[in-house]
């Protein structure tokens, strides 16, 4: 019975891996967070390690031009750049970790090992 359980667990974990064997995680805005809180957290992220050039006007991630979408990009950029230096995906409870890639069209979200 134990062997069957371990095999099933191994199979489920293998489904969660991407093609190069790494887990992908993204830091995105929590949809329940008010826009003013997201905006403040986005400003902080952009000033403390996030590369927010893509969400500037004419940037590859400018559209859709919403606080939630821009915050998600900024949060993820900060998280990917800083997670191995003690950075987190918290932003005063404005963000969550997701294993779903939020990239769309020409807007690509990074996921670093």
Automatic annotation (TrEMBL):
It is found in: Cell membrane. The keyword Cell membrane applies. It is a lipid-anchor; GPI-anchor. Residues 1-21 form the signal peptide. It comes from the Eukaryota. Residues 25-109 form the X8 domain. Keywords: Cell membrane, Disulfide bond, Glycoprotein, GPI-anchor, Lipoprotein, Membrane, Signal. The keyword Lipoprotein applies. This is PLASMODESMATA CALLOSE-BINDING PROTEIN 3-like. The lineage of its organism: Eukaryota, Viridiplantae, Streptophyta, Embryophyta, Tracheophyta.
């Amino acid at each position: 019975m134990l062997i069957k359980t371990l095999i099933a667990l191994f199979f489920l974990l293998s489904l969660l891996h991407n093609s190069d064997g790494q887990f992908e995680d993204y830091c995105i805005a929590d949809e329940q967070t008010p826009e003013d809180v997201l905006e403040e957290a986005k400003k902080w992220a952009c000033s403390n390690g996030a590369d927010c050039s893509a969400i500037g006007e004419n940037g590859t991630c400018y559209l859709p031009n919403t606080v939630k979408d821009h915050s998600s990009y900024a949060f993820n950029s900060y998280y990917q750049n800083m997670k191995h230096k003690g950075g987190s995906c918290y932003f005063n409870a404005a963000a969550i970790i997701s294993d779903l890639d939020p990239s769309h069209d020409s807007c690509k979200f990074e996921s670093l090992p």
